[in-house]
Amino acid sequence: MDVLLSVKPKFVEKIITGTKKYEFRKKIFNQNKINRIYIYSSSPEKRIVGSFKMGSILKDRPDKLWETVKNQSGIDYQTYYDYFDGKKEAYAIEIDDLEIFDIPIDPREKNPDFIAPQSYQYVKNMQMYV
Length: 130
What we know:
Layout: E1 2-7, H1 9-17, E2 22-25, E3 37-41, E4 47-60, H2 62-69, H3 77-83, E5 90-105, H4 107-110, E6 120-123
Parallel strand pairs: 1-3
Antiparallel strand pairs: 1-6, 2-5, 3-4, 4-5
């Protein structure tokens, strides 16, 4: 099974350039069943731009997690704390084996009923898109 992960375009760019080595989440998916994570660049791009293998998943209090990954976060302190405001747990997904597609994929071309995930969604047959 794969995961389709919504990421804001400004963060997608940081993933592509290699300055963002971790993707942050408030909730995490079942890690045992995931083959690849596909990056859906949200509005205004609305395209699947690449994929990666999940490296380690770090879980901690937001303040402690920041200290661990801040130099590879690709985001600033304020953005991070605004995202995790009021949360007791934070997750960081390590981006490994990144593959960026030469041509980003419009998922609506293959599936007119496609609905972009709010955060993430499981996808059984990602091959229908790529």
